[in-house]
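Human:
I keep going back and forth on a fold encoding question. Comparing notes only helps if you start from a blank page. Show me how you would write down a chain together with its backbone fold. Write it directly below this note and I will take it from there.

Assistant:
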Amino acid sequence: MFELIFFSLLNGIVTGLLLFMLASGLTLIFSMMGVLNFAHASFYMLGAYVAYTISMYLGFWVGLIVAPILVGLMGAVVERYGLRYVHRWGHVAELIFTFGLAFLIEEVVQFIWGKDTKAYHEPEILQFPLFTFFGQNFPAYKAFMLLVSIGIFIMLLLILTRSRVGLIIQAAIHKPNMTAMLGHNVPLVFMGVFGVGCALAGLAGVIAGPALGTFPGMAVVLGSIVFVIVVVGGLGSLTGAFVASLLIGLLQTFAIALDYSVNDLLQLFNISFDADSAFRDLWTLSLPQIAPILPYLLLVLILIFRPTGLFGNRET
């Protein structure tokens, strides 16, 4: 049992930090700019595919550096020549624009790279077990993912709270007219924030591609979970996104690992049920079966009891 808990805890932390890498970019865009970027997970997918292509010629490490930059530049171009003009018509127009953009990116990816899963692997230098515990190996690449995620969190936190750039971004969000009067180019600030947010999504794709697979549907797999994280953590809160990512990662990992059913829970209280009752399927429902819906159940509970999220300061 200790072995199960230990590795579930490790895998849950790795999963949660991977989700944070993706959610951190959306936190910058959705929480600070107020843009409903439904194409955010598509930039995550682009990061994986661009890195895969680069790695075939120049290796994994070059792709790790270059792919997020290219995806960030693509995001900046989208903001400058598309989203900026749509923004004046409100959030519904933004939602429709980014929703359509997500489908467009998916079709472009399938047109260029095809519909099959790509053989995008972690670098050879990280293809070894970091340690062995109870006969199970913990891959070094997972530890690498963990370190990169923590590094991103610390870097963003320092930039947004301790640097002049962070102060300008905060000012441009809350007092754009005053910030412009002080000589700062507010549209350029927003374009930069959107580009950096997309670059972070691309970086998440570069890191996650070898671990979770690089295929056209990878954006759909994590796309909705990211919005859950931003809302649960609280709009405008990077710390909230970090905590919510870990919470959801651990919740899903333990739900999959612990194979218990409703019947097992009832037996703890000496409650029995009729096997021929109309609710017999409910009694046999197990945690791994409901694991995919647990984040959304958490979202509903948060919206009911704490609409501002765990660390947010305004209602979602």
In short: The first helix runs from residue 2 to 33. The radius of gyration is 21 Å. The chain has a mean pLDDT of 84. The longest strand covers residues 129-133.
